[in-house]
Amino acid sequence: MTEALRFLVIALVLVGVRCASVDVDSKNKGKAKQTSKVHNEEEAVEFYNNFDKQFKFYCKRNSLAMWNYDTNITDFNLQRKLEATAAFAQFRKDSWKELMKYPWKDFSDPELKRKFQLSSVLGNAALSDHDFKRLDAIIIAMKTTYSKAKICSFQDSTKCDLSLEPELTELLKVSRDPEELRHIWIEWHRNSGEKVKEQYKEYVALSNKAAKMNHFDNAADLWLSSYESDEFRDQIFELLNQLKPLYQQLHAYVRRHLRLKYGKEVVKAKGPIPAHLLGNMWAQTWGNIADFMLPYPERQSADVTSNMIKQGYTPVKMFKLSEEFFVSLNLSAMPAMFWEKSILEKPKDGRDIVCHATAWDFCDSMDFRIKQCTVVNQRHLNTAHHEMGHVQYYLQYKHQPSIFRKGANKGFHEAVGDVLALSVSTPKHMRAIGLLQEQVSAADKEAEREETINYLFSIALEKIAFLPSAYQMDLWRWDVFEGKTTPENYNCHWWKLAEQFQGIEPPVDRSEEDFDVASKYHVVANVPFIRYFVSFVIQFQFHKALCQAAGQLKNNAPLHECDIYKSAEAGNLLRSMLQLGSSKPWPEAMEILTGQRNMDITALREYFAPLEDWLRAENKRTGEFIGWEKSDKMYNEEEAVKFYNNFEKQFKFYCKRNSLARWNYDANITDFNLQRKLEATAAYAKFKKDSWKELIKYQWKDFSDPELKRKFKLSSVLGSAALSDKDFKRLDAIIIAMKTTYSKAKICSFQNSTKCDLSLDPELTELLKVSRDPEELRHIWIEWRRNSGEKVKEQFKEYVALSNKAAKMNHFDNAAALWLNNYESDEFRNQINELVHQLKPLYQQLHAYVRRHLRIKYGDGVVKAKGPIPAHLLGNMWAQAWGNIADFMLPYPERQSADVTSNMIEQGYTPLQMFKLSEEFFVSLNLSAMPEMFWKKSILEKPKDGRDMVCHASAWDFCDSTDFRIRQCTVINQRDLNTVHHEMGHVQYFLQYRNQPIVFQHGANGGFHEAVGDVLALSVSTPKHLRAIGLLQEPASAADKKAEREAMINYLFSMALEKIAYLPFAYQMDLWRWDVFEGKTTPENYNCHWWRLAEKLQGIEPPVDRSEEDFDIASKYHIVADVPYIRYFVSFIIQFQFHKALCQSAGQLDNNAPLHECDIYKSTAAGNLLGSMLQLGSSKPWPDAMGVITGQRNMDASALREYFAPLEDWLRAENERTGEFIGWEKSDKLCLRTREELSKGAITTK
């Protein structure tokens, strides 16, 4: 990349503008208040024109100081550079303070709007003067170390003046002594990268600090912002995957010839390639070793270096040749000043100079230069065209305003020079300029084909070999900036990526005292590298488009033979794109040249297709291994078995001690119990961390025993225990504090404001069920949130940061990825989203029907005919289940309701009786009764001794295969009867898999555990079962078909209020957290984003306007308790799959009997089938467990749709009859940053 361009781009990007009182993450479309004078568009034009003039002055002065330093590294020039850089930064910062006053998003002039958009980030200049100067000084110091680095000769240890350019680069090209190459590689890395590691740590910290001051999470996000796409990283990774087959074929072929050259002791047949043998200091291009591995060595090589030397080429002649190529395309010649002031070869006066080739724009539309320590060879001839391509780009857009004087994206600038080199490097062009002999006889087709393969092979060693390296260079830095890779793992992570993507390895063992990545200029010089990857893809798109314009592809002429030399048509087309600079988004620039708006690999694959076919056939012929294996194992499998058995014994001890301490605290919230819990949790975490450090030393992926392999796989993620002791204790303390706030939260009665002891369970839950006073419900809704969620927002921010930190230390991008790892599928989120989409028609019909009855109940003034449903009216604190409001909206109110709460109360049910009834159901299926200890130690109703406790129902496994408990503040109602069966289902699962190794004592996935209890509840809640146990009367006369059908619709409706209403909420709970963990939703938008999702997915709205001072989602236990929620969604899908399979086993679906009437009570066949799945625990991947019980391996909504089909048909007909609007329009409720804004009627962010 060009040095001057880099600083120009940075400088321009650094000039930021922010509308002072507008939330930049909002979707405001109205006019917001300004904290100072609001400038109009006419004033903005005048200001920007004046700014542009001043910018050119400071930019030129800074560029000149940079040039003087880079071309003569002295303390004096360094001081002048620092002074100029500081002055430039101060100008940018002062200008930004003015720029930020302009509301550019509302500008009508699209060009002016884009100027301000591209200037809307201040970048490094956002730092304090002290920090900015420090960051600049660090970068200069690292570059100085790099530029001054010299090593001693392998041949003469007293000669210690070998620089990278040109001496070491030349030696790496010509030497074939593996020991000399090893010496050069080691010594260069020792004298360059190793020396800057401490500086680099500070560079990372300051770069991230600058990014955060620009409202980015880290410097990686800041770097990537110029590509204007949230999908950019995914697109790059996908392009790399598409290139992988070609790269692996090239890699295999090269490895074979290196092995033939240096022996199998140096180059393993199936291993990565040693990096020092590839002819380049960083193994990024391999063209220097083509001489001994050309596919057809008897054919003339496409490398014309020897001919250039014979013909007396000089650096100036090489650049003049390049200029002539551009002129032949009707593009611009270099101005006279270019030839006067460029440095085209390394000065011989002994000065230190930054030799890395760069093109410079001095910001005045006149002065353009190149700095290159040119060597007379074909590689530098291509580099000359590349750098002159940058200058040509400068010349073409020099008329643009300063802000648009850059490439459409950073890859464009890199591609322009290279696209010319694709023509220049063809044998056809080399012959045209006299650097290759005339072509062989046209009749010699075989010779011509062989020459083509040689040519493509030489190009591939430069282009294809480069692509993984280009990706890896920035992937490493993204990981560093994002905190996934810490200084303790800088070097090892670099080599892990090098092995993964390039298939290379260091020539000697490395340690974290080395810092090999910093032996590369772009790393120490703060130059992003992904632009080169982009360039290497899009240059082939450009090339194909220009070749078509030049008429070079007629009659199916091959793309790799095209030379656009002397084609004014191609030059005119290229100019039309170059002149745009960045005045248009890059897809528009791409489209002007290529007709395409996206990066596309098709042209590259077309270009190299003949070579890829040849490589595949050649590697097959020689039996070469494709790909590469990992290094040798560290520990053998027999030792792993011994280690794991010992680990398991200790694990049970620490796990039980921790579980007991947690139980004691949750059952009696006191400071004493809190302290014991913290101590036990810390000890458990330390044990897991110590064990994990040993466990990960085993190469478990290569184990032959599948059970042992799975044990290690499931144990390879440490979770939050990977944190430092301090961070782990802090995270645990935060979760405990949030749970304590939740558990102790109480509100005052609506009826009696002096009675302020109402807890969520049982008082508020009961009031939400029975009250039909909308004002009381509104009071409860508001006050609960004010006394629970609102109080923990600051703690939650820290919880998010620590959770993400833990995830990164487990090699996940964020905590969302860590949570989802349990489901063992990269497609899991897409599958869940698809299931939500499939369920949407049923949910919308239910929503419409419920909204109508709420409107009838409370009036149009409370519930709008087409709007979302007010959340406080749905009978549940979180609007997640709507069963409590069934009483006034049953489809057939004259038919008996399926809710048997009143009958339970009349029959004197107790919490204990409810649990005994559940136990009897399991026993009837030939499953296990509860052990005696369960009845002794469980807490089945809220203690009346006044203690504070966590009432949320939960089942507990104390890790010893004997102690299992439930804690539940049970209320006598049907909902809690279902909850009893749900929690007993968890315990049944514990009992069934308790003989498994401890790591397999889990559900097959998180949703399985939740589904097991619920699948029993599907039977328990049927009218058939409730009649069997005496909680419902016998059915009406069998002849009364209509009454039977109406009772059935009532039953399904009641079930749907619990199941179907719940599904969007269950998805939304974790979707919000995934967004938070991934940084898509920031603390400034926590609450409003929650309500956007609630409106979109649930079709609900808050009863009152909300602000970011509220924190409504944290009024839910699972949020403050760090409990993932998607398991419940999974459960609500797969429980119907389980139910159908068990019903079939029980013979309940014979003769097309409806699924919703099935009751598996007393079916041992069903129980045995269920038990066969439960006993597996997590010893098999969940699709295997699913297959055992259902015969299916995927989640499937068809059983759920079958279960509710009669209700869905009825709802659709009923809603059509009443003309009910299906779906919902946007809510008119506001969600703003502050309550003060709400009180002033500020504009909504929704």
UniProtKB/TrEMBL annotation:
Disulfide bonds join C152-C160, C355-C373, C748-C756, C951-C969, C1143-C1158. The active site is at E387, H522, E983, H1118. GO terms for molecular function: carboxypeptidase activity; metal ion binding; metallopeptidase activity; peptidyl-dipeptidase activity. Residues 1-19 form the signal peptide. Binds 2 Zn(2+) ions per subunit. One of its GO terms (cellular component) is extracellular space. Its EC number is 3.4.-.-. Keywords: Carboxypeptidase, Disulfide bond, Glycoprotein, Hydrolase, Metal-binding, Metalloprotease, Protease, Signal, Zinc. This is Angiotensin-converting enzyme. It comes from Cloeon dipterum.
